[in-house]
Amino acid sequence: MYIKSLELENFRNYSGLNIEFDKNTNVIYGNNAQGKTNIIEAIYISGTSKSHKTSKDYELIKFENKEAHIRTKVFSRDNEYQIDLHLKKNMKKGIAINKHPIKKASELFNILNFVLFSPEDLNIIKDGPSQRRRFLDILLCQLDKIYLEELQKYNKILNNRNKLLKDIYFNKNLIDTIPIWDKQLVNCGNNIIKKRRNIIEKLNDVCKDIHKKLTGNAEYFFLQYENDVDEKDFLTLLNKNFEKDSKYKMTSAGPHRDDILFVSNGIDIRKFGSQGQQRTTALTLKLAEIEIIKERLGESPILLLDDVLSELDSKRQRYLLEYIYGIQTIITCTGIDDFVSNRFHIDRLFKVNNGIVTTE
Ligand code: ATP
Ligand code: MG
């Protein structure tokens, strides 16, 4: 799969942009604050309907404008698709595929799949568990059409239960409604637990191989699902925790607390890994993400590398660039020195300067 072209109108710092990408390695370079990440963000929105940087659509519209457009042409599953997004200031965005408006954003997952690797992802191992859950959820959304709905449903039920725990404090009679919410939470939560368990098992298999190659077989590595509740005893645990949950007015157990454990040579590298080990693991995870999507869809996802190459040493840069051979990649960076000195191949080079892109 690959993106053929991207057109922007009043999006972030772009008044107008129309670029054609190469099927292989594209490099977009320019100084800070010129619009590199804005291009990555536009692609991200085309594939998910949402930005990875903001939940507020109006921030995406160029200052002093009322609406913005993102138009992407994608070649995937032997067909060409046009994805149109129309962002409006105080209204819901319009999304169309091949000019037909769509209601469910998840339809975009059937067309455009990508893996984004940005400097924040380098911290995925050392940051809190929410970042790792986010990683799992984004991956599962791309692989499983109903996962997003299940997750949204779970979060809604969880919020309602937490609200109820607060309300019970003022109205003791409400306690009778708790079992209704618990039943729903367990039904929905168990689907999520099952899917996360499966994908982590898969990730473990794929990551082990990649990690071995990245470290030259130096470290014994594995990852594991870390959850405080199993499908079969979720309800029992909710009952057991009820007193504690009422006290703190919060549901203390469930997939909303899940985590992934990463072990290298017997050490939990979330806590005790060196920066290099944590980065290698982050890179391993991202490459595994590509591999799993590729295997499941029969096509490689697009790789977006936002400002991340310069954060890796040349050995890992080389491994990454060799690994992605044949996959459409869009790389942003402030300069191309690394490419020149390491003789990394570039198929199309773009320079961005204050919202204007030129092809070199
Ligand atoms: P860096 O190398 O620092 O990551 P970048 O090239 O990735 O820089 P972007 O994040 O793409 O930079 O941002 C480019 C510019 O877009 C910034 O100067 C920012 O202020 C501007 N910008 C962000 N949102 C809007 C908006 N809604 N309207 C106009 N300009 C905006
Ligand atoms: Mg940037």
From TrEMBL:
GO terms for cellular component: cytoplasm. PROSITE patterns: RECF_1, RECF_2. HAMAP family: RecF. CDD domains: ABC_RecF. The RecF protein is involved in DNA metabolism; it is required for DNA replication and normal SOS inducibility. RecF binds preferentially to single-stranded, linear DNA. It also seems to bind ATP. InterPro entries: DNA-binding_RecF (IPR001238), DNA-binding_RecF_CS (IPR018078), P-loop_NTPase (IPR027417), RecF/RecN/SMC_N (IPR003395), RecF_2 (IPR042174). It comes from the Bacteria. It is found in: Cytoplasm. GO terms for molecular function: ATP binding; single-stranded DNA binding. This is DNA replication and repair protein RecF. Belongs to the RecF family. It comes from Acetitomaculum ruminis DSM 5522. Residues 2-334 form the RecF/RecN/SMC N-terminal domain. One of its GO terms (biological process) is SOS response. ATP binds at G30, N31, N32, A33, Q34, G35, K36, T37. Keywords: ATP-binding, Cytoplasm, DNA damage, DNA repair, DNA replication, DNA-binding, Nucleotide-binding, SOS response. It holds the Pfam family SMC_N.
